[in-house]
Amino acid sequence: MIVRIMGEGQLDVPDSALDDLNALDLVAEQAVDGADETAFAAALLALHDAVRARGTALRDDALVPSDVVLPPVGATVAEVRALFDGDGLVPG
């Protein structure tokens, strides 16, 4: 699966990481639902760290559609509400 971290680039993340990413995504989604900026910031950072740890960066000139687009670190709950479609940021 190709994951784009906004402002950073794309990574190719193995499908075997999906369960771990979904668990972190659930924490982020709950933080957004509760308007908890602190919990959301921590969850988003953990999600980014997991993607970076499990993924392989694509070259900057690679033209590959993203399966998942994550907001940048520092994004606020208000900024990402539109990205959540009820299922979080990472498709289940």
Tell me what portion of residues adopts beta-strand conformation.
5-15%
Envelope shape: globular
Largest sheet: 4 strands, mixed
Radius of gyration: 12 Å
Structural class, by secondary structure, is: alpha+beta
Whole-number mean pLDDT: 89
Read across the widest sheet, the strand sequence of neighbours is 3-2-1-4
State the end-to-end distance. Answer: 12 Å
Written overview of the protein:
- Helix 1 (18-33) runs antiparallel to helix 2.
- The protein is of the alpha+beta class and 92 residues long.
- The chain has 3 helices and 4 strands.
- It has helices at 18-33, 37-54, 77-80; strands spanning 2-5, 9-12, 56-57, 68-70.
- A hairpin with a 3-residue loop joins strand 1 (2-5) and strand 2 (9-12).
- The chain has one domain.
- The N and C termini lie close together (12 Å).
- The protein is globular.
- The mean pLDDT is 89.
- It has a 4-stranded mixed sheet with strand order 3-2-1-4, covered by helices on one side.
In short, what is this structure?
The chain has 92 residues and is α+β, with helices and mostly antiparallel strands.
